[in-house]
Amino acid sequence: MQHIGKKLSFLLVLILFAVGMQAQHTIFLDHGRIEYEKRLNMHARMKQMAGGEENSWTDMLKKGTDQYQVTYFDYSFANNTTLYKPGRESPAENRNPFWGEAPAEQNVVYSRLDSMQSIAQKKVFEQLFVVKDSIRTIRWKITDETRKIAGFDCRRANAIIMDSIYVVAFYTDAIITPGGPESFSGLPGMILGVALPHDHVTWFATKVLVDDIREDALKPSVKGKAVDIKALNEALAKSIGKWGTWGKAYIKAILL
Amino acid sequence: MKKLFGVVLCTLFAQFCMAQQAAVKGSVVDTLNRVPLSHTVVALLHAKDSVLAKFVRSDEKGHFEINHVPAGKYLLLISYPAFADYVDPLTLSDTSVVQLGKIMLTQRSRLLQEVVIQQKVAAIKMKGDTTEFNAGSFKTEANASVEDLLKKLPGIQVDSKGQITAQGESVKKVLVDGEEFFGDDPTLVTKNLRADMVDKVQLYDKKSDQAAFTGIDDGEKSKTINIQLKEDKKRGFFGKVALGAGDQGFHNNEAMINVFRGKQKISAYGIVSNTGKVGLNWGDREKFGSGSGEMSMSDDGDMVFYGQGDDLEGWDGRYQNKGYPLVQTGGLNYSNKWDQERQNLNANYKIMKLFVDGSTHTESQNILQDTVYYDNSSERFNNSIFRNRLSGSYENQIDSSSSIKLRVDGSLDHKMSGSFNQSERLKGADLVNNNQRKSSSVFDIGGFNSSLLWRKKLKKKGRTISLTVSENYSRTNGEGLLDAVTNFYKMGQVDSVQKIDQRKTTNNEGVQINSNFAYTEPLSKASSLLINYGVAITNNHSNRNSYNQNANGKYTSLDSLYSNDYGFNIFTHKGGISYGYTKKKIRINLGGNVGLTSFHQSDVFRDTVRTRNFVNWYPRAIFRYNFTQQRRVSFDYNGYTQQPGIDQLQPILVNDDPVNVVIGNPNLKPAFSSNFNLNFSDYKVMTNRSIWMSLSYQTTSNAISNRSYLDPSSGKRTTQAVNVNGNSNARFYSYFGWKVVPLDMRLGGNLRGGTNRNINYVNDQYNVTRSNNLGIGLNASKDKEKKYQVYLDMSADYNTSVSSVQSSLRTNYWTYNINPSMDIFLPLKIQLHGDMNYMIRQKTPVFTTNNNAAIINAYVAKKFGKKELVQVNLSMNDLLNQNIGFDRYVQTNTITQTTRTTIGRYGMLSFIWNFNKLGAAAPKQ
Description:
By secondary structure, chain A is α+β, with helices and mostly antiparallel strands. Chain A has five helices and twelve strands.
């Protein structure tokens, strides 16, 4: 029943939106809720990490791992305040003995886009961190490629972050809040799709709901060890950094 | 103060900049209705690379104002949903304030298609079934891009902007190996797909995302291109040659090679050695052998390992038993994966000739009610085996729901053994008997095993069926000679002499067939029910004859006392049910099997047939709780039945050792054991702290133990297997390890212990032997990459044992182990290594010899060349020559200590050459 409810509300939004499109002026959203579907191609990731080397160990891991690890995140936004947190349970099995719980699966990211500050709660194995720092400034290259995501026309922008990660983002100007999943932001509208093609991971909005989100209702998760990005980086390098390609991939996922 | 100064400076700087920067102003209006457009995005992009510099949104009146823009060349991009983009180049100087006035935007629907920026890359639409193009059949130039390849494909066009059209319609999505391909921006990423990496190009319909999401087919389908990449067709070879020569004739020579082409691999190895190495070690087996055993993963994500065992070599490829081994062995392996890894084949052949000679010395203490007997024996032996073994496996993932796996394994052994044995038995200090015997035998042992596993997932999620059928066949044929003389003493004088001179023949045959059919039905998202049924057939036949010499000196007269022709067949129906529940942190499994077993025992000599029926139970329970990802507790219970073997059952007297005669017991019943395990583990990744704890308890009813009778007059012992009740044991182990941050080293400690209760019968008296042990261990390690690594492991164990037949006699002793090891990496690619295994065993009133041994091994290694492919080792094994092959164990009322000849001190110089030729990609097909 709940499921049907969700479907209905999604359809309703679509209809509302369609109505908005037909009218003279578009309805611009400055508050609401987005559900992102995060898809990680684990097989491709494992192949990368193994450096092309294959043995009975990598074979077995591959067999025991579902190719696509699918998780959902809820993203609420009101004006310039946004909160990204784990969403509904994935219907997929996500068998993944290699990582156990995937990194960044439990991330809760609170962002203030006006002051470009964020408070992100990140779980690294048994340790909860609360990362308070400024939001990463991304040099976006705007393109003229477009696509529809969750009913919205989106424009593509490309960038390189963290020195080497190639990012493809799709944003819509019909949502005023200039945010996006995780720490992706800074485009003239809402980012509804992000792909890191060389890291085999994507976030795409599956629905956009016009929920009545109040700005002061969005609160960061503050439980955990308070650090800034630099301190987190150092803590990770000290412990997981020694674990070869596996550790590097983990750190990358945590630092996004 | 500093901060304040910074703020002031920043503010000043900002002010200064503002004064120096440009501004752009204007307003946005709808062309048709002349209405101001609010919330319009007005963005400035750097003209040279389209990087976003600044953006604003227009206010309610459509006005916008971008301030503080550094001088430069820009593109002005104005966008409004459903309106065409407005793009205009703009050059700003330091102080310019550009007034753009009213900018008209036009609704997209009113524009001609070619003006529309929107429909750019996006779409290809096509109708019909999947079309597949084989990339190899379209020639492209070297380093051509995927777009170049697509251009060549009939019906597909790629325009200058990289937009793809197929049969007049644009392509919505491009996938690479099923994953969306976004195309790389060459100004940001250099890595690009090349045409020669493509295997196939597929064109097909994909339901719209909305249809997939809502489950309602809106009939809207979009054409999708899937680019399938070629498997990395690497080809090449690698291998290793190691030659080593030492003093006293010690040598160790190995050669191995692996030739591969893509997933196809052929490897071979050969070993000639007398240093204990009889096979490939774990790492080499992966590269040059048949793989390092079976690894698989259960549906719950648990990993299951099956060692690919060989009774002659351990996991490290070393000989585990007594004596000096000399081996000549070789192996061949072929493996291949194809059909996108859906099918794989593995075939192995191994040949081995192993000679072992040596001697052992055994002392044992046998506690009886009123006295203690002591046995001392020495043996010299000389054995050899010639083995041929062929094995293989084939696996086929038939489709996404079903798979089949077939495994076969056949071997032929030719075994020859000879031994000379001397022993004496003392009652207290008095000699009771002594014995000298010579025995020799030749056996041919053949075996063939196969198994087939078929699994299928049915349509409903979680509903599966599987069928397993396996077969094991073995045959042993052989004969041997036994020549034994035993003297029985009375009052220090020889009282009587027993002579045995027999030829013994053995013809054993056994076949086992097991089958199991399992069906899993999901009850809910979290729970499921498993039902299984199977039939197991075990047929064994043993024919053992002993012949005495006839008048002509030929071994033809059958000695029926030591001969036997016996059949033992077991037929079992086994069925069961189990319930599983898995949700997030909890996993529960409850269930069991019941087996209806019938024994069919036929004694051909005595012409008797017996049939006995048993009901066997196999209960099982698992409870597991994960507090967090790395902290879990689990409890499991496992009950199982062990059937007696034919050797324990057949009523034959075995006089291989004339003073320790063994006789079978046809009345043996199956034993039933219950195992309880409690485990807890906690690992903290960030602080590198680990805790492990386990507690286990086992109790067995009808345990197969023994009844022994030591004839007080002759000192001859007869032993028979019997069922007993009350055997149990309990064990615990705990480990705590952590990282000492200031010293950058790891420390760990463990505490362990166990208690055993074993029942047997000693001269018709019920005997309970209780043995306990308690131990503590400590380890420390520290390493610095490419500098050194140091490891120290120490432990102390206390053992006690007492038998109820003579509870005043206790055996208590300590053992200690100290194992340091060290590696130092010096400049010039020189490595120094040293390790020691120092064992200290406390003497007991019975075992009074010194059994302490410090085994020190050391080597110096130097690597040569840029890639360090050549290595020279100078090594010293057992520097102090103290390896005595020592073993002490307590079993019911007998305590035994054995020393045996093993490889001791030798020095060796070895030369190791690693070679490889890799990376050459296959020529384009």
